[in-house]
Design goal:
5 helices; alpha+beta; 6 strands; two-stranded antiparallel sheet
């Protein structure tokens, strides 16, 4: 049985486990009070880390959009990358976007199960049988995508 107390590695105090945030399958090493204090005194580091992650995700999406032709496969839309989505045609192991765009090694194989569509066509695929059929035909036509390094 686990102890009901955990020692914070920052302040050194033994605190109830409920005062620690979850991290993966366990708990963070700092208590909530220490985390909060650090975040209040170091806002620049949080903002910098967020900006770095966001920049990496944007670069990876730009690469994946380029691999998929740079435009909506159904209507040809290509004006703004933020309006382009990856629609899973095959089984979906995990989504693309957000936190999942940071690692190109995991994003690339997953993106090859998708087609690139604009937001409007993506909504149409999920709400209209004709769009869904067109997406499947388009996916079958693009199965020969080859990645050149």
């Amino acid at each position: 049985m686990e102890s009901s107390l955990k020692r914070c590695l920052r302040c050194g105090e033994a605190r109830p486990r409920s005062e620690f945030n979850k991290r993966g399958s366990g708990l963070q090493s700092w208590c909530r009070r220490c985390c909060s204090g650090y975040n209040k005194t170091h806002p620049a580091s949080r903002a910098r880390n967020y900006a770095l992650r966001r920049g990496t995700a944007a670069r990876n999406k730009k690469t994946l959009v380029g691999i998929h032709g740079g435009e909506c496969l159904l209507c040809g839309y290509d004006r703004h990358m933020a309006a382009l989505d990856f629609h899973h045609v095959c089984s979906k192991d995990r989504g693309l976007g957000g936190n999942n765009m940071y690692s190109m090694s995991s994003s690339l194989p997953e993106s090859l199960k998708t087609i690139l569509v604009c937001s409007n066509c993506h909504r149409g695929i999920h709400n209209d049988e004709a769009f869904a059929s067109a997406a499947m035909v388009a996916f079958n036509d693009t199965r020969d995508i080859t990645v050149v390094n």
